[in-house]
Amino acid sequence: MQFHKYDVIIIGAGGAGMRAAIESGQRARTAVLTKLYPTRSHTGAAQGGMCAALANVEEDNWEWHTFDTIKGGDYLVDQDAAEIMAKEAIDAVLDLEKMGLPFNRTPEGKIDQRRFGGHTRNHGEAAVRRACYAADRTGHMILQTLYQNCVKHGIEFFNEFYVLDICLTETENGPVCTGAVAYELATGEIHVFQAKSVVFATGGFGKVFKTTSNAHTLTGDGMGIVFRKGLPLEDMEFYQFHPTGLAGLGILLTEGARGEGAILRNASGERFMERYAPTIKDLAPRDIVARSMALEVLEGRGAGPNKDYVLLDCTHLGAEVLETKLPDITEFARTYLAVDPVVEPVPVYPTAHYAMGGIPTNIHGEVLRDNDNIVPGLYAAGECACVSVHGANRLGTNSLLDINVFGRRAGIAAAEYALSRESHVELPENPAASVEAQVALALSEHGQERVADIRTELQATMDANASVYRTEDTLKTALHDVQALKERYAHISVQDKGKRFNTDLLEAVELGFLLELAEVLVHGALQRKESRGGHAREDYPNRDDTNFMRHSMFYKQGEGLTADIRMDFKPVTFTRYKPMERKY
Amino acid sequence: MTATAETVSGSRGSQPPVPDGAVTVTVKIRRFNPEIDDEPRWDSFDIPALPSDRVLNLLHHIKWYVDGTLTFRRSCAHGICGSDAMRINGVNRLACKVLLKDLLEKGDKRTTITIEPIKGLPVNKDLLVDMEPFFEAFRAVKPYLVTYGNEPTRERIQSVADRERFDDTTKCILCACCTTSCPVYWTEGSYFGPAAIVNAHRFIFDSRDEGAEERLDILNDIDGVWRCRTTFNCTDACPRGIQVTKAIQEVKRALLFKRV
Fold first, then answer.
1. Beta pairing partners, A30
2. Of the residues A323, A352, A381, which one is the last residue of a structural domain?
3. Which of A2, A53, A472, B165 ranks highest by number of CB atoms within 10 Å?
4. Largest CA distance in chain B
5. A286 is catalytic
6. A457 and A345 assigned to the same domain
């Protein structure tokens, strides 16, 4: 075992982690621990843009952006947090530009902006051009720019260090975070990092689903670690399905395509979004578009030999727009489906994309241990966190915004807290014990279950029973399946027993987190007997503000993978927007 | 360990059902685990696969159902994260961007695919190499915007044409396909390599940047751009379609004429 001591450690090197590191690293002694090399993180897969009311191409202001975010989230958004995000969006974009991000430009040389789903002028009048973008690789440019600036500032990285636990020390005022424990992939060695502040920025858990835009590595590790410590997770039943995944594959095609004018059509060529969202049509928020697409297919209007997808028609945009503003998705369609968007419409269907819920934090990124109290020294930002700025449904581009605004805030808060503490709080006894036990157990001989089989079955039941539309019956099936898979997980076999780059072991550990989070998602979806944002219950088709205008909070009860889940609720923060019916 | 090919199959329990339209692929993989091997060896796996499968799917099939010790990096699986660069049938490619049908002759019912780690970087285990020397070269060229003086309150102004000037090199995902396809890099590990030069180019030709001279000085070094012999391997290898050799030539020209 090796021991390290820092002021701040940041877990994860995607957009939120590196944005935090740039702030923290200039103030306090900081290390970034990351399962992947920094430039491999899935921020790089984000395409369409990052919204900010710069008003570079038409009238806009941050108040409209706030409203759109709240309405887009079906009023489950904490309104104070949404206001901060929309206000700070402007500086967040300008900061990135100053760091070197090559945004596309207007003819005057300013940052160009394009339309995006749910972003409107004057509270819903029409789509507004708010998304700042770099072709259709905005996330790639953000990830590269942040890494470049980490290089510039000499940020210290521990690459391919897989954090498996955090250290909580009990004090008279409750638990305090004092460090983290990591497994070094290269050597199999365990490292204890003592720190005054720990920031989680570990991303999402899309791999609970089969059809997903998420990377293989997005297994909810950070959320899982926090949950296993008895700390809450918030709003986990709200999972976003992005409307335009390449049919059958789930690879993302940006909403920016529709922002540039692409149209969704059913088998007969009808522009069906006109029926579901008469004002902004194809640029309705993602939950609405995804449900509309699923309905078209369910009602027999799907395209293709099995009528199981719809078509994204870009043909009228012309080769030049596609090649210059949407080059990557044009290539994805050509490479993976052998469809050329210049001349033919692209088969698309909703793909599991983004967790609205996560580790509950306040607006400084401080992690909550219940509705009222924080865990001193523990922070979270980005997709793994729930501030909550996305409520029941995130608007497109607001995730790139979230990681920049709240990554920055968490980095500053973590560093300032660390600097305000004279000395490190003592670590708990045997901080590495549970990780050592976890690794030893996974490598020991105790069964013949294959990780891949359990994972495949998990993903199949989640796709079939807990995706765009849900019912009591499907969710009960999913819950039953997930619990049975958890039992089987106790008998997994890891074939690679070595210490060196043991990715077989890594996948087994990741599966444990996936199972844990899948159950929380399904549990929450069963309890929430209403339809709101990304959570659509066929048996409860309406929003129920009387009983469910509140955040869900999930706590693990007891030890082990099959322990129970306790559910609680947390009030939504309102400032100036009263809930209204959500129409577009 | 001998370097002979041995076909391994079914060593991990029952196999998943074979899909309709599958062909049989013999995947020959260069293996090396310094924990147990004295030298690299070849393993062969016969597995069923669909023509629409990515090579990454084949590797996953082997890892998940046949041999869990097979080791490689991967993440996004659609050519954006740059994790899974490897030598596939002798050329550098991302395993998630090569489809089996691209490697099949029309009508083939079986084929053989050879997969090796990218060359020029130390092999850590199987297809997984030590990326540190590669990232070290990247970090050495000051791959970030260098500016002096006060920052403007709003964004810096940049014309559409000036933005277009360096567009191509902003696409780089640091996968190392280019650098590890370069024969000069194979023999002279001290050469910065194409990827580092591409990333220097991205800033040298950015109208907002004021660090071009510092970077050109670095690249004028004995291990800099002059090592390039314009074999175009790098351009062929780039999964992002970047005109790598052209970018290197533009940096050379900037050095010769001392202007950007």
1. A8
2. A352
3. A53
4. 66
5. yes
6. no
Q: Which domain holds residue A282?
A: 254-352
Number of domains in chain A: 2
Choosing among A244, A334, A335, which should be mutated to test the B contact, i.e. which has the most B CBs within 10 A? A335
Options A115, A258, A286, A409, the catalytic residue: A286
Give contacts of A46 with chain B, Cβ < 8 Å.
none
Kindly tell me the sign of the dihedral angle through the C-alpha atoms of A370, A371, A376, A382. Answer: positive
3-state secondary structure B150-208: CCCCCCCCCCHHHHHHCCHHHHCCCCCCCHHHCHHHHHCCCCCCHHHHHHHHHHHCCCC
In the chain, the amino acid numbered A427 is L
A340 and A447 part of one domain:
no
B171 near A CB under 8 A: yes
3-state SS, residue A10: strand
Q: Is residue A249 part of a domain?
A: no
Domain with A493 in it: what CATH number? Answer: 1.20.58.100
Residues A345 and A439 in one domain: no
Is residue A323 in some structural domain? yes
Q: What is the ipTM of this complex?
A: 0.96
Question: Does residue A550 sit in the same domain as residue A437?
Answer: yes
Structural domains of chain B in order of their starting residue, each with its CATH number: 6-125 (3.10.20.30), 131-257 (1.10.1060.10)
The answer to the question of residue A575 being in a domain is no
Spatial contact of B232 and B245, defined as CB atoms under 8 Å apart: yes
Closest CA to A148 of B47, B16, B206: B206
Do A439 and A538 have their domain in common? yes
Residues A263/A264/A266/A267 CA torsion (nearest 10 deg): 60
Preferred mutation among A330, A503, A504, A507 to probe B, highest tally of B CBs within 10 A: A503
Q: Given an 8 Å threshold on Cβ–Cβ distance, is B173 in contact with A332?
A: no
Strands (E) located in A415-523? 469-470
Q: Where among A352, A383, A401 does a domain terminate?
A: A352
Residue B101, Cα to own-chain centre: how many angstroms? 21
| CB contact (8 A) between residue B35 and residue A500 | yes
Bond before A388 cis per omega within 30 degrees: yes
Q: Is B143 on the interface with A (CB under 8 A)?
A: yes
Residues A335 and A446 in one domain: no
| A40 interface with B at CB cutoff 8 Å | yes
Contact assignment for A98 to B203 by CB distance below 8 Å: no
pTM score > 0.95 for this model?
Answer: yes
C-alpha distance from B11 to closest chain A C-alpha (Å)? 10
Mean pLDDT by 10 residues, chain A (584 residues): 97 98 98 97 97 98 98 98 98 98 98 97 97 98 98 98 98 96 98 98 98 98 98 98 97 96 98 97 97 97 97 97 95 97 98 98 98 98 98 98 98 98 96 96 92 98 98 98 97 96 98 98 98 98 98 95 94 97 93
Question: Exposed (0-12), middle (13-18) or buried (19+): which is B2, by Cβ within 10 Å?
Answer: exposed
